[in-house]
Amino acid sequence: MPRPESIIEIFLQPGECWFGDEHTRIRTLLGSCVAVTLWHPRLRLGGMCHYMLPTRTRPRRPAEALDGRYADEALEILRAQVETAGTRLHDYQMKLFGGGRMFASSPNVVSVPERNIVSARALAAMYGMHISAEHLGGGGHRQIVFELWSGGVWVRHHETD
């Protein structure tokens, strides 16, 4: 797909989600966090979430808003945006990125990056989504660029191991 003449540039901070159309480019920087991208190839709609942890340590109160810092809630935010666009989640391609080890951890402890990766895959399965691509784990951080006009996701991985 050719690049549109005008592009909206979005930089996601940890805990943020964004959903847009073919005039959007979404960027983020990931360490132990994970980003999930969704892209509708026919309509060229999509979104990204950048979550920090798999879930809250305490239950969410009924009146409390969804919080994109947590995987389960971030995916629910994206799912709601998919429905608001009048589309179905299963028509989207899902890709996963991040979960890098930023610090050495004890071999007997499941680290935050590992828990984030497990959570992303479990949520994909729960929603019945096929993961079309992933770049997960390892050491260091990643720069992610997602172009909604083409569905292309560009990854620059800065390894520390």
TrEMBL record:
<dbReference type="InterPro" id="IPR038592">
    <property type="entry name" value="CheD-like_sf"/>
</dbReference>
<dbReference type="InterPro" id="IPR011324">
    <property type="entry name" value="Cytotoxic_necrot_fac-like_cat"/>
</dbReference>
<protein>
    <recommendedName>
        <fullName>Probable chemoreceptor glutamine deamidase CheD</fullName>
        <ecNumber>3.5.1.44</ecNumber>
    </recommendedName>
</protein>
<dbReference type="InterPro" id="IPR005659">
    <property type="entry name" value="Chemorcpt_Glu_NH3ase_CheD"/>
</dbReference>
<dbReference type="Pfam" id="PF03975">
    <property type="entry name" value="CheD"/>
</dbReference>
<comment type="similarity">
    <text>Belongs to the CheD family.</text>
</comment>
<keyword id="KW-0145">Chemotaxis</keyword>
<comment type="function">
    <text>Probably deamidates glutamine residues to glutamate on methyl-accepting chemotaxis receptors (MCPs), playing an important role in chemotaxis.</text>
</comment>
<keyword id="KW-0378">Hydrolase</keyword>
<dbReference type="GO" id="GO:0050568">
    <property type="term" value="F:protein-glutamine glutaminase activity"/>
</dbReference>
<dbReference type="GO" id="GO:0006935">
    <property type="term" value="P:chemotaxis"/>
</dbReference>
